[in-house]
Amino acid sequence: MGLANGLDIGLKLLYLPQINLPDIGFSGQYTGIGIDFRYRILEGANLPTLTVGVSWDELSGSLGISTNVNQNSTYSDSGTNYSAQVSGTTGYSLNWNVHSFGAKLLLGKNLMVIYPFVGVGFQRNSGTVVSNINGQLTTTVNSVVDTINPAVVTSGNPVVFEPKYVAGIDFGEGLHWALVGES
After folding, report:
1. Neighbours of 47 (CB within 10 A)
2. pTM for this model (two decimals)
3. Can you list the positions of beta strands (E) in the chain?
């Protein structure tokens, strides 16, 4: 939304409600909010438009995948044949809560209905990411039964500072559409 004197504000709201597909062992959900500010520094009839922008985003979500395991096999070791079976369930989950702050400088040119632009900036991403692998498996090798309970948890508080490159084209009169590529 354009405000006075070349100041624009943008709001983002992302929401994917909880999805549970137990038949295929999938669940997930995603939410996000964000705000963008842009200020036009330079604009003229024969000059390109120079804009500076900053953004803040909060993203959180989860993803879960589970599977049933039922495998049979035979193998040979030192001339002895073994029959092996593995059965049970395993699951993987990923949970995240991340924050992102960014700034960029955009250069564009108004060509009536088309507005091509390029930009450069940075993103600083931080937060927490936790992934889990767990399960309960039963192994049987030549009638010897054993239970395995895999449980792996990784947790991190990454802080990533990365460059950001933007190229795009905005077109339309009144209602605008934009194609944007970011790296």
Report:
1. 9
2. 0.68
3. 7-21, 26-42, 49-77, 80-108, 114-141, 144-148, 151-156, 159-171, 177-182
